[in-house]
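[stage:ingest] chain + small molecule ((2Z)-2-iminopentanedioic acid)
[stage:ingest] validated
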Amino acid sequence: MKTESVLAMLEAKHPGEKEYLQAVKEVLVTIEDEYNKHPEFEKHRIIERMVEPDKVVIFRVPWVDDKGNVQVNLGYRIQFNNAIGPYKGGMRFHSSVSLSTFKFLGFEQTFKNALTTLPMGGAKGGSDFSPKGKSQTEIMRFCHAFMLELWRHLGPDKDVPAGDLGVGAREVGYMYGMYKKLAQEHTGTFTGKGLEFGGSLIRPEATGFGAFYFLNEMFKREGIEIKGKTIAISGFGNVAWGAVTKAAQLGAKVVTISGPDGYIYDPDGISGDKIDFMLELRNSGQDIVAPYVEEFPGATFHPGKKPWIQKVDIAMPCAIQNELNEKDAEQLVANGVMCVVEVSNMGCTTAATDIFLEHKILYAPGKAANAGGVATSGLEMSQNAMHIQWTAEEVDRQLGIIMKNIHDQCLQYGKEKDGYVNYVKGANIAGFMKVARAMIAQGTI
Ligand code: 2IT
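[stage:predict] done
[stage:export] tokens:
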């Protein structure tokens, strides 16, 4: 395999799919050497098969808003790869999405899910529907309209969606409700469900908690403690909330959160009722963080700015792809950052990641660090299949074990001669190996 020729082929076939090509390139560059040690991969054309989704479903979603006007959105589901298990991955509702967004997310999800140790294939989906400023009934009507087409592509052992940006427990509830009615079964073909109808304890916290369990493993190797460290977090949604909650439990100080309107700097640290206020901010449906300073006047709001200019020990992007760029990375390094945990999917640009690796900063890529979310979705699927509910302690314990296991897999392939661990390389190769071996075992399909 030659990375350049595979990329040239993809660029010609899929021009303009920027995020997708970026995600593929990042993986190819890091696995090339290992790939070429295994002639069977080339023989089976594994990489040419793995970079293309198994199937793409795109459909029209017409619905009626509160004023009686007809609205038209696009729905997507990318069933990327089911070599190791049923398709699994979240749904994103955001005005900015395109086919490229979902293909990059589905591609990343395939590797991430492989790392979780659970039998889950990769998928992603969603819509260009923007929940911002929509009423509760509009959101419900949209979710129901969306499922009228998507339901036929789903199933508990076929394809199991969950939440992502713009899709939380409320949206999952509406989508699952319509799915259940149409499919005439209640087997939990969605994760992130409400606790009353098959949801798992700890699933809401899982992505943020898992990122800290991963960070803890990285720090343990270095003999560093999380306690007392200052942390910059971006975003204020579900993932950021879980991360801030765990940081406070571990005695670290989170000094920033952010939204599309700018970032909040709170020198006293975000803990206690400030964490609860994050939920209020999100529930307002306005997608802004500025109201935080009215509630907590010790903090300052920095309109239009990103939190990466603050001097902190740890940076954790928790919002959206490419939210931390080359300049941000340079700034963080100049300010002496010791660790960067990419919690959003592809939160760092390639140039930013390269800067962290060049400076030998402890750097965790999203597909390892944020895998706790989908891993706990896998645990929700297990509970549904067994018709039982585990305690929060039990789910949290299993999440901890899974994150440690992901860390160990990264070490296996990412350790360099000088002892530095390139977690990007480690995660990509470990995820790739599992999917590749499963594909070869199943023949050319
Ligand atoms: O990016 C992700 O891993 C998610 N949005 C969670 C997916 C899931 O199926 O729980």
